[in-house]
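Lecture 7, part B: from sequences to assemblies.

Below are the input chains for today's worked example.
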Amino acid sequence: MIIVERVVKLFGNTKAVDNISFEVKDGENVVLLGTSGCGKTTTLRMINRLTEASSGNISVAGKNIKDVSQEELRRNIGYVLQNNGLFPHYTIAENIAIVPELLKWPKQKIATRTSELLDQLHLPQDYLLLYPQQLSGGQQQRIGLARALAADPPVLLMDEPFGALDAVTRASITSEFSSLEVLKNKTIVLVTHDIREAFQLGDKILLMDKGKIIQEGTPADLLFNPAGNFVTRFFEDQRMQLELNAVLLKDIWPHLETKNNHENNADVIDQDKSIWEALDILSGKKQNNLTIKNSSTGEVKLAGYDSLFTALGAFKQNRHE
Amino acid sequence: MIHYLLRLAHLNKTGMNESGQSLFAFMREQSGKIFDQLLAHIGLTFISLLIAVVIGVPLGIFISKRKKFSAPVLGFTGVLQTIPSIALLGFMIPLLGIGPKPAIVALFLYALLPIVRNTFTGITGVDATVRDAAKAMGMSGWQVLTKVELPLALPVILAGIRTATVINVGVATLAAYIAAGGLGEFIFGGIALNNTNMILAGAIPAALLAIFFDFILSKVQKVNLKKLRKAFWLLPVSIIFFSSFYLLPDLYGSKMLAGFTPEFMGREDGYLGLKKVYRLNIRNVVISDAVMYKAAYEKKLDVISGYSTDGRLKAFDLVVLNDDKGIFPPYYVAPVIREEILQKYPVLENVLNQLTGHINDSIMTELNYRVDYLKQSPEKVAEDFLMEQSLYKEPQNGNGGTIRIGSKIFGEQYILASMYTMLITGNTNLQVATKTGLGGTKICFDALTNNQIDMYPEYTGTALLVILQTPGSVVMAMNGNKEKVYNYVQSRFHEKYNLKWLKPVGFNNSYALMMRREQSKRIGVNSISDLKNYLDKK
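Predicted structure of the full complex, as structure tokens:
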């Protein structure tokens, strides 16, 4: 658990971060979203004291970070940087082993852990003896993540982790990240300026502007209950796609018709998936309908393009009332 | 280095009389000496480099962490770099005396800038993201430095050490000026003695040494980052290894110590003659004329090879030891003039000969003292003296042609050139253009034969031995007789070069051994034979 209370950061007379407070629960993925210069990276760096807060308190796992030595604090917090920051003079194996070495793990344990991480991140073992510059940008970024995860820290800070990648690599690596098993129980604070990435990876989004948090909430909260014009404008360009991504099938469940005579040949999709994913299957399979399943009750419903959009419309109507 | 090589090219082009020996034969004959000098050279280079690395790298690290100190530190080391090498060596004498100590300190100061600057640049140039990552992983400041910053800055630091090494190999040649040895002994000896083989025997190994170390270090720099981490420890080890080539010779023992110029060391009428004729065996070091007298005065040296009319003789209260076996040939000065000019302006001969008989050894010493030590201008000293002797006349400011007078680059020659200028402008309607400060015998003489100047004051001994390279047997036959020597050079110059020797001025500025007056009195040594007996007794 990370608690940030009334934190201010001054650079000279400029307030980079202006009196912000928020909490990140254990296992929660929180995204700091905003344009360049809004203070999101500074906020992130204050959590592992790469930047010292001018005032306010931050605590990680119940301890005020000022009461722990910088080195000890950082060894227990994974950190992933935009430009990966891998050491060019270390092999991949040595890069991943940095924190375990600092923690003086036995050699054998380090070797086991390193190769285990490569497996978990779907990287081949023969990378271990290569140098970072021999890998592609996407691969380097994955090594950066492996390095951050090496000592299995409970907390992970990620500063624009996919920012330096091209659009295609970025989209594929983002979706891969969201499904990675190793990240499942981590408490993650991620900084990004990419709205889609934020929606895809964040349980909770903190939208920042000029050093302040403008709105805090789930993707759907931000879309359907914007806390003012800034928030509305921020999402304007991609609203339709974001809505389809943000609204899950279970959200529109009540608005879907129950059909008992379901088609046997239709694909089945879980109600925890988003409308976007349902549409994706429909367009790929050239089918008219698919079966949506409530895995807890075993109930199923049948839906096609029309019924999905009608249900979304009804859902939005409800939220505004 | 380039300076010496240019000088060499100049010497070769003019093709003076060389003893017929080939360079290869000379180097083989002197191989022992070359080897000793080479080791001393390598040692000097690397001891100073070692100190510079030990101090420079931490200093560079410090200013990369405390940026406000970077400007003053880099500025200061930069200023050190701009001090001319000879001047820097000169500054060291009063502080550290002569020998290897001041040479090493001077070389160290020169090596400092490239090492400090490159360390600073290398560390500040490390990718900020990588440094950030290192901190974020939980490395301490020391770990960030040793595991990340230094290894990544190493190629740049090595480049600095490489620059410093090459600079040091070059500057270490100058160490020969202050009795620290090295290949400079041959280079400066060769220049002074007009011996191309000797210059090359010093310059070629020095150049090869610079190229060799540059090459080796360029290889080390290219080794990949991984191996470099090991090379990092190899480097200090090899520097220490090379430093050990130079075991500091003990210069301050109980016995007397002599300091001789590189030129004196190689001459028959110098150290070679002392050994042959007097069987004098004295511990000696090679040192520049510029610092030798002061070193004797400060008791760093006991016996030095000087010139008998040098002003510093008086300034530092030294006495000349009597050359009782006559090994130093006479060095009577006389104007040497192109015969063409004399035919064109016959009046010159009488005008220039007016000086004859007015200056003896002690008067010349006094005049030199006023210039070298009291810092009066040579023109002022010349004018005062001519007035005193009633030889001075107001310049006629005529326009009957121009006489170009040259001189070598020391006080006595400046004074004589000024006197001749005043005599010519006062007694004739000719004008004078002076070209003073021509590097040495070689340069003066070449200027004269190549019609760049019309006359300059030359010494009979120099003409006999350096310019004419007269064989030893002929020199011995003259037995140091001043008339015989004068007549010989006069006739040879006329036949060979169409140059005329006018009448000698009268003083003899020959080589001489000298000691502090106080010491000479105390131990009762007045001649070179006395010195030999004194040394043998001990």
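Note for the exam: The longest strand of chain B covers residues 431-438. Keep this in mind when comparing with the next example.
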